[in-house]
UniProtKB/TrEMBL annotation, chain A:
Name of the protein in question: Methyltransferase type 11 domain-containing protein
GO cellular component entries: cytoplasm; nucleus
UniProt keyword annotation of Transferase present: yes
Source organism of this protein record: Gymnopilus junonius (Spectacular rustgill mushroom)
Superkingdom of this protein's organism: Eukaryota
UniProtKB/TrEMBL annotation, chain B:
InterPro entries for the chain: Trm112, Trm112-like
Similarity field: Belongs to the TRM112 family.
Protein name: Trm112p-domain-containing protein
Domain of life: Eukaryota
GO molecular function: protein heterodimerization activity
GO term, biological process aspect, one: tRNA methylation
One Pfam family here: Trm112p
The protein's assembly and partners: Interacts with TRM9.
């Protein structure tokens, strides 16, 4: 299938309301079908989780169907990842992620809130979530919340978002090829065609015509460097140093180190580590 | 799921509720006990992060008195098995959690706690 051009999104009205209508409501509707297409962990994320110390607890902020909650598979129960999501229907799937006999820990909540003891987690991941927030300020707040949720002395975090630069295997393509490079990303509408055998029979007229139901999700596609800039802004607002821990640092200095950042298969990612003297 | 593992990490986050906002108090709970794989290495690693008083008090409210009031420095298998049971095998399926400070109620339904706030409650 050739790449489809994506429609540009116009975020209007209050961003909270816009996200309710164009993100949360859609995921609640498409939860079962969406989940059936999201089962394979991405390699960099699986590797990150495998590197975590036994005994650690973490937050998966925007857990979706909870596909990262059972990891690492070779150390079951060695760490505990708690999944948080805004979509109640996705959480019903996440609570048994990996196996119907399994029990995962999931919480219904908003990634812009912090319903936790401050800095209590050893790690946090935010995978394919922040790109659903409709303003730059809200995306920065989500990064701040993630940083605040992990230990100031050793907390680690991994953030993944959709990139404007989509690889050749992607079914999707952003608007057009001959645009000038963007520094601020792009707001787009991504259609979700609901699998026919998962559609709920309704009086909706489109059913009668045999047409599939199509839902539209809002995405902010990140430009190159935009995710790292978001992290830097969030760190500055929290008064964190943005460098490696130095030996000559004084007492009670806190910082964040960007361990790695890059692009993988149509996504940008950044890995962070907090430190404290 | 709300197991005591998660409960020990949750705190009230309503607007201006910053002190005495932990631990949330269980109310009208329905419990289920489900076996979980025993992983002593996880428990030993997690112990320093536990708020011990909150865990012991909450376990006692739910009817389990097997934990000592002070976190022991030396741990044996029996202690770890009790800790394992309390953290990972008691599931709160229905009920609610109330903030000891502001009284905000977080409902639990089908094992999932609702930590969402209404707009005017967000700090």
């Amino acid at each position: 299938m050739p790449p489809r051009a994506l429609e540009v999104a116009k975020v209007e009205g209050r961003p909270e309301t816009y996200e309710d209508q164009n993100v949360h409501a859609v995921y609640d509707e498409i939860a079962a079908h969406f989940s059936s297409t999201r089962y394979k962990p991405w390699p960099i994320i699986a590797k990150f989780i495998s590197s975590l110390t036994t005994g650690w607890v973490g937050l998966d902020s925007g857990t979706g169907n909870g596909k990262y909650l059972p990891l690492p598979l070779d150390r079951p129960g060695g760490i505990w990842t708690i999944g948080l999501d805004r979509s109640r229907n996705l959480l019903e799937i996440a609570r048994t992620a990996g196996s119907f006999s399994a029990s995962r820990e999931v919480v219904w909540g908003n990634v812009l809130d912090n319903p936790w003891r401050p800095g209590i987690f050893d790690y946090a991941i935010s995978i394919a979530t922040i790109h659903h927030l409709a303003t730059h300020e809200r995306r920065r707040l989500a990064v701040k919340r993630l940083i605040q949720s992990i230990s100031p002395s050793h907390g680690r975090a991994l953030i993944y978002v959709w990139a404007i630069e989509q690889d050749e295997l992607s079914k999707r393509k952003v608007v057009s090829d001959n645009e000038t490079p963007s520094f601020t990303g792009k707001d787009v509408i991504v259609p979700w065609v609901l699998s026919k055998n998962l559609q709920v029979p309704s009086n909706n007229s489109s059913d009668k015509n045999g047409e599939p139901q199509v839902y539209h999700r809002y995405y902010h596609m990140f430009a190159q460097g935009e995710l790292s800039r978001l992290v830097i802004e969030a760190a500055e607002e929290l008064g964190l140093q943005l460098e490696h821990k130095r030996r000559d640092e004084g007492q009670n200095v806190r910082g964040v180190e960007i361990v790695q950042d890059g692009w993988e298969r149509s996504n940008y990612y950044v890995e962070l580590r907090l430190w404290q003297t | 799921m709300v197991r005591l593992l998660t409960h020990n990490l949750l705190a009230c986050h309503a607007k201006d509720c910053n002190t005495n906002n932990f631990p949330l108090q269980f109310k009208d709970v329905q419990l289920e006990i489900r076996e979980a794989d025993f992983n002593p290495e996880f428990l030993k690693g997690f112990m320093p992060k536990i708020d011990w008083k909150a865990l012991v008090d909450t376990a006692r409210q739910l009817g389990d008195t097997s934990l000592p009031l002070e976190q022991p420095e030396m741990v044996d298998d029996e202690f770890l098995k009790n800790l394992h049971h309390i953290l990972l095998e008691i599931h709160v399926e229905e009920g609610s959690m109330t903030c000891p400070n502001c009284g905000h109620v977080y409902p639990i339904s089908n094992g999932i706690p609702n930590m969402l706030l209404a707009e005017h409650e967000i700090g």
